[in-house]
């Protein structure tokens, strides 16, 4: 049985690890350190760490892989056939990459959307197609030669959650035959066309702020992309107001940022249309339907956000 060291942190990563354990010997799992989570900031281990404990293998949680102890711990393991990296969240230095064949699963059709947020970036850009690329890693970000690539359609209503699930299901189908095919010499890596590369950035909370002068379809794409984190938000009553659910409306010629009511529905003006609000969350409060929100804050209608 081929031997794998797994690097990953996210829910996506966890699902891949569950798939790998059926076909490979997992020598160790490397994931990010336990972090404070939620309003209470309770120290919580990653979902990959939780899954790895069931495998009864060494779990490493280095804060920085550039520290000598991280290299020494990985070098001390039995020789691995491959390192598999899936949404790990840290740059892996060359010294560690040289310890085994490093393979990466990336959530885009490389060389498009190299970087930390390929799924969100595809939605933000209004793409109708994306996919999974399985590649060999080198020192540059998402730069190595491709082993296998498959595409999926992005539906107009797909949020990050739905698209991530599609990509995860596809990756689970691809990963075992791809690793085996490459290690057995049946798959030949193909260099990327680096002249066509595009890049995406690490997402911050500030990225979720809405500019109401933006095209309504772009605002809706931001909602779809950031639904899991950081969400999209504006300001009301000197507090952050999160838009938890919304739809695109073709009602036009409303001043951008102006809240208005038509029948029983509430909208906000944007460029080339308006956003219908369905569920909101005011800072410090629980999410609520738009009608309940307006009952509690009647001055919300006719406010400019």
Question: Would you kindly provide a written description of the structure presented here, covering whatever features stand out?
Answer:
The chain has 305 residues and is α/β, with parallel strands linked by helices. It has two domains: 3-200, 3-Layer(aba) Sandwich (Rossmann fold), CATH 3.40.50.170; 205-300, Formyl transferase, C-terminal domain (Methionyl-tRNA Fmet Formyltransferase, Chain A, domain 2). It contains eight helices and 17 strands. The chain has helices at residues 11-20, 47-53, 68-75, 94-97, 118-124, 160-183, 216-225, 290-296; strands at 3-8, 25-30, 35-37, 42-44, 59-60, 82-86, 101-106, 114-115, 129-136, 146-153, 199-200, 232-236, 239-249, 259-262, 265-270, 273-282, 288-289. The strands form four sheets. The chain has a seven-stranded mixed β-sheet. Strands 12, 13, 14, 15, 16 and 17 form a six-stranded antiparallel β-sheet that branches. Helix 4 links the parallel strand 6 and strand 7. Helix 1 (11-20) packs parallel to helix 2, helix 1 runs parallel beside helix 6 (160-183) and helix 5 (118-124) runs antiparallel to helix 7 (216-225). It is elongated. The mean pLDDT is 95.
Can you summarize this structure?
The protein is of the alpha/beta class and 305 residues long.
Supply the key terms.
single chain, 305 residues, alpha/beta, Rossmann fold, Methionyl-tRNA Fmet Formyltransferase, Chain A, domain 2, 2 domains, seven-stranded mixed beta sheet, six-stranded antiparallel beta sheet, 8 helices, 25% helix, elongated
Highest CATH level, the class of the largest domain = Alpha Beta
Question: Biggest sheet, in brief?
Answer: 7 strands, mixed
Q: Specify the structural class.
A: alpha/beta
Would you count the extended β strands for me?
Answer: 17
Beta-strand share of residues:
25-35%
CATH topology of the largest domain: Rossmann fold
CATH architecture of the largest domain: 3-Layer(aba) Sandwich
> Radius of gyration in whole Å, from Cα?
22 Å
How many separate domains? 2
